[in-house]
Design brief:
globular, mainly alpha
């Protein structure tokens, strides 16, 4: 995920990494996670699984993928309400 100013949520040099912000609207990331989950449930006898931290840490993402999706729908990617609508859609689709 990217902030409005284009920066990301990675820790600065010397900081201890904690939760990071992964964009659920990024199809490459979503496809990779889907492949991992498919492999997991196909190769192991499981009766349930829990995916931790699948909710975005913010309601806005200004990464290339999110900006492209918003612009493709003829909307303003810097409109906070439009951003929240996209992130809610990403969460539900994910």
């Amino acid at each position: 995920m990217r902030k409005r100013d284009g920066s990301d949520y990675r820790p600065n040099a010397g900081e201890t990494p904690v939760w990071t912000a992964l964009c659920l609207g990024n199809n490459d990331f979503f496809d990779l996670m889907s492949q991992h989950f498919t492999e997991f449930v196909s190769n192991y006898d499981v009766d349930r699984a829990w995916l931790d931290r699948v909710r975005s840490i913010t309601d806005e993402c200004y990464c290339e993928a999110c900006i492209r999706k918003i612009k493709a729908n003829g909307k303003d990617p810097f409109d906070r309400n439009v951003q929240r609508q996209l992130q809610n859609k990403n969460f539900i689709a994910g």
